[in-house]
Amino acid sequence: MTGTLLAPMQTSPLEPIYLLLELWSALMFWLAGETGLEMLQYQFMHRAILVGLCIGVMAPLIGTFLVHRQLALIGDALAHTAFAGVAVGLFINAVLNVGVSPYLTAVVVAMLAALLIELISEATDAYNDVSMAIVLSTGFALGTTLISINAGGLAVGVNQYLFGNLSTVSNESAAILLVLFAVIVVTVGVTRNQLLYVTFDETAAEVSGLSVDWYNRIMVMLTALVVVGAMQIMGVILVAAMLVVPVAGAAQVSRSFTESLLVSMVLAELAVLLGIGVAYYGEATAGGVIVLVAVAIYVVAVLAGKLQTSLADDRTPEIGSIEAEKNTSRSD
Predict the structure, then answer these.
(1) Whole-angstrom distance, CA of residue 199 vs CA of residue 326
(2) Chain segment 75-94, per-residue pLDDT in tens
């Protein structure tokens, strides 16, 4: 009787998202039947593809701001602190025998580290790369220390977070990522103009009355959420690449911030889908393959950008030729 009464109270707040995951899985099973693709016949691949598609949107969404602010390396710093957060979660589970998700502890630790990066820069007037280096070193040191204390279980469990794994994306992890995805997209949508102003002219933004420090903190905390979300299939070692490589490729062929943002999302989605497919059929690590595909796309984008510039130069008439044409027409 007691168990019956307590059952409704144990319902997870993620239940509505689990329903969405079931609908997504049903769609993937239908696609598997229509296309005959083997990898769409497994539910763990459905979750991996969904997580990859979300990463393909939110990583360039934040990465575009970071690259234009010359903060491309902050992803590395936060990835190492997310690694420390995973180690904290695994350590707590091993010592206290509780079921805390390492992704939740990674979110908390990464967001605290993101704030710490900003606070160190504000308090010491040091350049951002100094505060990033301090936080990166501290995060990696904390992670390795916790692993070394209890090397038996943790060393085995931490590998999937270091290198990423398609099969480790559980329902709970996918649901947490969808929540992070919604938070990131809504926050950027609401604060887009302010973030854009702070990105391109911080001094003018401050003079106009914007709280530059708070918008900087919002940006680094959103970066922390992206890092933790992408960590599931990319691994902490490679997660920073998705913040930078697609954006760098898009910058080669785009002529405005908005165009660069949209193109970087297309390139990231292409890298994720091709990378997941190659990793599945080649039985390779997903994170590494996705980054290699992204770099290959970047090389193609660089060549396309050079070709685009060359064609534009050929179409632009030289000043001397214009004057010669004018003189010719006058003499006629």
Answers:
(1) 44
(2) 888 888 888 888 888 888 87
